[in-house]
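If you are new to this repository, start here. Below is one unmodified record pulled from the training split, so you can see the exact layout before writing a loader.
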Amino acid sequence: MKLAKRNYKKEYSKFQSSRKEKKNRALRNRNRTRLTKMGLVRKGDGMDIHHKGSKVRVMKASKNRGIAEKSRLKGSKRK
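And here is the target side for that same chain:
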């Protein structure tokens, strides 16, 4: 049985255009704008907005991007 070649471009565009993801992206943009106006973050300052559920924090980009996802941890069934 030969598998069909995946169309990654189509999958990506379908994911980005879904209603759920549009709402998530809008929420992230709104949080970033709010924190920028408060003076907590600026472009190029090396800080990220950490989103964990409804909690929003400012942290170093290197630390935020180094957090292990549950799917990548040992023993995870998701691949």
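Two things worth knowing about this chain: The first helix runs from residue 8 to 16. Residues 68 and 74 are 10 Å apart (CA to CA).
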